[in-house]
Amino acid sequence: MFNNIDKDAFIYALVAFVGFIGGILGIGSGNTKLKGSGWSRFISGTVATLSSMLVCLTVYEIVFFMFHSSGLGIALGGWGAWLGAEWAKKKMDKFLDKKIESISEKRDDEFEDDERREYEEVIHRQN
Q: What pLDDT tens digit does each residue of the chain (127 aa) get?
């Protein structure tokens, strides 16, 4: 029935539609706070919806890459769109902070005591 290009176009259109609906529902449920009034509120809602659509696409691509399942990717993408881009940003910031902290702890453990003192002396001299 569909060739590959039509099937891919249909799936991406479905992801966009699910992201759009998820973004609208996220605004309605209070997951996304709109700022301003009048036109600024409309623009804020448009940006929030487009951001949710991007989250939906990103989640879809990650899930599809890991599990090779379009249905699961679309479902989890809709969930991500409903939660909103602000939620995704907070989670990503938290994840990256933990990764950076663990890397810096590993580097601290690599120093010998003498090397650590020399390093700290150089840093203090520079300041």
A: 567 788 899 999 999 999 999 999 998 888 777 888 888 889 989 999 999 999 999 999 999 999 999 999 999 999 999 998 888 889 888 998 888 887 776 665 555 566 666 767 777 776 5
Q: What's the CA dihedral at 84, 86, 89, 91 to 10 degrees?
A: -80
Separation between Cα atoms, residue 33 and residue 42, nearest integer Å: 12
Instruction: Tell me how far CA of residue 87 lies from CA of 6, 26, 40, 51, 116, in angstroms.
Output: 33, 11, 22, 11, 39
CA-closest candidate to residue 48, choices 28, 29, 31, 23: 23
Q: What is the pTM of this model?
A: 0.72
Q: How many Å apart are CA 10 and CA 4, to the nearest integer?
A: 10
Structure tokens at 82: 């409903």
